[in-house]
Amino acid sequence: MRAEALNSMSSRVQALFRALGPWPIRDKEIAFILSLFVLLSGSVVEMNVGDEATRLTAFQALQKMALPSVITAVVVFLTLRLGRTLLARFTGYQRLIYFSTAVLLGSLIVPMRWLLIDIFDVRLNSGLADGFPLFWVSGLMYLAINASMGRSTAKLAAEVERTQTLLHELEGQRTKIVDAQEQVRKEIATYLHDGLQSQLVVLGLQMRNSIKNLPADQAAIANSFIEEIEHIRRVDVRKASQQLSPDLQQISVATAIRDIADRYSPEVKVAIGIDSAVQSPALPERTKLALYRIAEQVILNAAAHGQARNVWLSIASQGDCFDFQIANDGHPLIHPQQPGGGAAIISSWVDYLDGSWSLTQEAGQHVLFKATLNLPVLDSRG
């Protein structure tokens, strides 16, 4: 039982020492607090010791103790800065250096008090033994400030790391959602292009075969239906397939964005100006898709929510990045918009291109979407 009690006590002592340090040494903070302690305690003594004739006013006492407190701050700061330097250089002896710095600080404070009393005639007992409690005060202050600030900083760092981890996880989930959306779009587009078109072709052939024996007037009506089905197959189904998942290996970004503009014509006029570097065949397909989806979503918002009649889109190379702007003359913004919230799709694609974006109300009453995208500036000749 006695051995267990000794082991338990030893464990508690070790835990206490671990709690006390080593922590990062807060040289500036401790120097400031100790100098403030000297300033205030010395001023109080000067205001209360002696007879009425020799007592100082508060202002006079602060004036007298100002220089001693500054000297204290300098000495404490240099002592602790030495400890910080040694901690950084001799990493294998951090615990020894850390606690030795506390002893060194207390050992300097006591004679420094005596010197300040002698030089500045501060009305305190001048014996070294009378100032010995300062050894413990300064040492404990050193340990307490470093430990409290160190633990707080460690907790804050842990929270920041946890928040960053959650943000990375959220970003990963958002990327997965966008990828899943693209996959669904692609599957539907493939079905429209291959499956539905084939079925419409077969339907048209079957209808043509079934009307061969009909009277001429009935055959003409049936042929008009067949032509309408054929138009839907050749134009509408292909267009829907292209809009769902544009084949950016075969067409340029500019062509794909012009197809977006055609959807809203003539209700919304979209003026497009795109740098030749963006139209380079060497631009990765995923990057082209990102530019396409950003343009698609911003123009949709301008038309559907802003009731815009005119939209101006431009993508221009600016050094190592691209300046992507889309202005519209729709309803003014009530509040300036920032990434996030309902703009998750835009944010996801802008983040993919390692960029940033904003939506603001310009002085000329235009709503302006602006993004800076880190894209490689490629030769338009490929």
**Individual helix count:** 9
Distance, first to last CA: 83 Å
Low-confidence stretches: none
**Share of helix, binned:** 55-70%
Element-level helix/strand string: HHHHHHHEHEEHEE
Please count the beta strands (DSSP E, at least 2 residues each): 5
Gross morphology: elongated
How confident is the prediction overall: mean pLDDT? 80
The biggest beta sheet, please?
5 strands, mixed
Question: What would your notes on this structure say?
Answer:
This protein is an alpha+beta fold and 382 residues long. It folds into 3 domains: 130 residues, no CATH class; 61 residues; 123 residues, 2-Layer Sandwich (Heat Shock Protein 90), CATH 3.30.565.10. It has 9 helices and 5 strands. It has a 5-stranded mixed beta sheet, covered by helices on one side. Helix 2 runs antiparallel to helix 3, helix 3 packs antiparallel against helix 4 and helix 8 packs antiparallel against helix 9. The radius of gyration is 39 Å and the shape is elongated. The relative contact order is 0.06.
Architecture blueprint of SSEs:
Elements: H1 2-20, H2 27-48, H3 58-89, H4 94-120, H5 133-210, H6 216-244, H7 253-264, E1 269-274, H8 285-304, E2 310-318, E3 321-328, H9 344-352, E4 356-361, E5 367-373
Parallel strand pairs: 1-2
Antiparallel strand pairs: 2-3, 3-5, 4-5
Helix pairs in contact: 2-3, 3-4, 4-5, 5-6, 5-9, 7-8, 8-9
